[in-house]
Amino acid sequence: DTEVTQTPKHLVMGMTNKKSLKCEQHMGHRAMYWYKQKAKKPPELMFVYSYEKLSINESVPSRFSPECPNSSLLNLHLHALQPEDSALYLCASSQEGQGGLGQETQYFGPGTRLLVL
Amino acid sequence: AQKITQTQPGMFVQEKEAVTLDCTYDTSDPSYGLFWYKQPSSGEMIFLIYQGSYDQQNATEGRYSLNFQKARKSANLVISASQLGDSAMYFCAMREDNTNAGKSTFGDGTTLTVKP
Fold this sequence. Notes:
The structure holds two protein chains of two kinds. By secondary structure, chain A is mostly beta strands. Chain A is 0% helix and 55% strand. Chain A contains no helices and eleven strands. Chain A is globular and about 45 Å long. Chain B is mainly β.
């Protein structure tokens, strides 16, 4: 089973709203990722969690706040977003500790399409 | 310098024919992995195939094969017997063991359209 689930599938929010994106995997993976993807562009890495600790933050604005409550769950809390934050948000996971990082496949969820009005 | 280059923004192929999607990469890390993903209009990034830098043989997964030419630093995806459902955007990606903190680097993608 290589399934990563994400909820909600679609989200519309105003600039003053607070919302959260959720991601879940049950593959025993110990690394989880958030990506942002604009239309017709490659995904851009936002955050990486390794063994439930934040290991990479790609200088993402503080209006995006990640959280990893346990090894299976990853949240992205959104507050005071801007219209330019409208995008597809993808979660991914990969195994860790089984050889080099170059051997680890990232498995992606279906994404959340976010529209900020 | 761009680490992953996909030179074909768009490709067309007739149903049931084979198609090759190009990918070249740049790294000085001796240990790395190359990945291809398919992204239909629904948005999900679907993992297709993986090639490790030390793998002697080209990877194959069903109708997908990876033409790995290490000296040329190319990792082209070959899709045989194209189907209408293969119409999607395809991304080539690389992860390096020792460089770039293991982050995945993606190419700009190729949009494949399969014609009936």
